[in-house]
Amino acid sequence: MALGHPAGTPPHGRGGPGCLRGHQGLHRRTSSMTPTAPEATEPVGVTPITSLADLLAVDGVSEEMEIRSAVGVLAIHGGGLERATDVVAREVAARTGSSFYALVQPDGSRRHLPSIRFIPGVSEKLDSFLREVDTVMSIHGYGRHDDFWAVLVGGANRPLAHHVAGHLRETLPEEYRVVDDVDAMPRTLRGLHPDNPVNHPAGGGVQVELPPSIRWNRDHRDWSDHDGTPRSEHLELLIDGLSAAIQDLPTADETPS
User: Fold this and answer.
1) Comparing C-alpha atoms, which of 138, 142, 121 is closest to residue 203?
2) Do residues 220 and 213 touch, judged by C-beta distance below 8 A?
3) In degrees, to the nearest 5, what angle opens at C-alpha 143 toward C-alphas 140 and 149?
4) Cα dihedral angle (126, 130, 131, 133), rounded to 10 degrees?
5) pLDDT score of 39
6) What is the pLDDT of residue 147?
7) Of 167, 132, 144, 139, residue with least CA distance to 154
8) What is the pLDDT of residue 254?
9) Which of 62, 66, 53 lies closest to 99, judged by CA?
10) pLDDT in the model for residue 44
11) SS3 74
């Protein structure tokens, strides 16, 4: 099921959510092109944490894992940290029969461990998940006050990233820009570091970075699927697009050269 092979992996990790990152890489829309920005941004009150062991020891932090197939969907910053990312990963995995792993923080917990520090040998569930899959889709969230509308499709498996991006462009409303050119992404959001779990399996993977606008329910003024809040229409469309991309994965014979 793997599509293509991981590309070269320059030494760039993934930055934390919530902080205002530099303007490098993402093109700012003009006011005439930009829809009204939602009221949601990732709060800036993120607490750094230095190890996966310390994160797993935090009260209320939980892991979810199901092995279903060699394709996996991952959300390592779920729950209170990057809102609705575990919701997306869980639903896409269920719809497509994919394996699933999420690390979920409780409400009020915003502890950020960089992706490259989710190292092997600490979490039995994460290790088992990564052993059993050969291709991964990793769901993240990011917050930038200068761009609410870009969905970034990174990860080392660039053919798979272009495949996923194509499905999202067919599915998402026109106000969203789907970016699959890594040179047009901030370095901290590219998901190319070899120590990032998305790149551990043999087939590598794709990292999907979601802006607040797609995760926020504007009508209910809260995050989708949070505390009884309905899932927003745009998040449902995103889930449809990601699910279609997995269901439409080319076989090895169809993989582009």
Assistant:
1) 138
2) no
3) 90
4) 140
5) 52
6) 77
7) 139
8) 55
9) 66
10) 52
11) strand
pLDDT along the chain (257 residues), means of 10: 42 32 36 43 76 98 98 97 96 99 96 98 99 98 84 98 98 97 96 98 97 86 79 93 96 53
3-state secondary structure of 173: coil
Amino acid code (one letter) for 146: D
Q: Which residue has the tokens 């917990």?
A: 109
Beta bridge partners, 178, equal: 151
At 139 the pLDDT is 99
- C-alpha–C-alpha distance, residues 66 and 70, integer Å: 11
Question: Residue 203 contacts by C-beta under 8 Å, 6 or more apart in sequence?
Answer: 1, 2, 3, 4, 5, 6, 134, 135, 136, 157, 160
Domains located in the chain, CATH noted: 47-249 (3.40.630.100)
pTM: 0.83
Distance between CA 102 and CA 94 in Å, rounded?
13
Q: In whole angstroms, how large is the CA radius of gyration of the chain? A: 17
Separation between Cα atoms, residue 227 and residue 247, nearest integer Å: 30
Per-residue 3-state assignment (H helix, E strand, C coil) for 100-154: EEEEEECCCCCEECCHHHCCCCCCHHHHHHHHHCCEEEEEEECCCCCCCCEEEEE
Residue 218, amino acid: R
CB-based burial, 77-107: b 16+ in 10 Å, e otherwise = bbbbbbbbbbbbbbbbbebbebbbbbbbbee
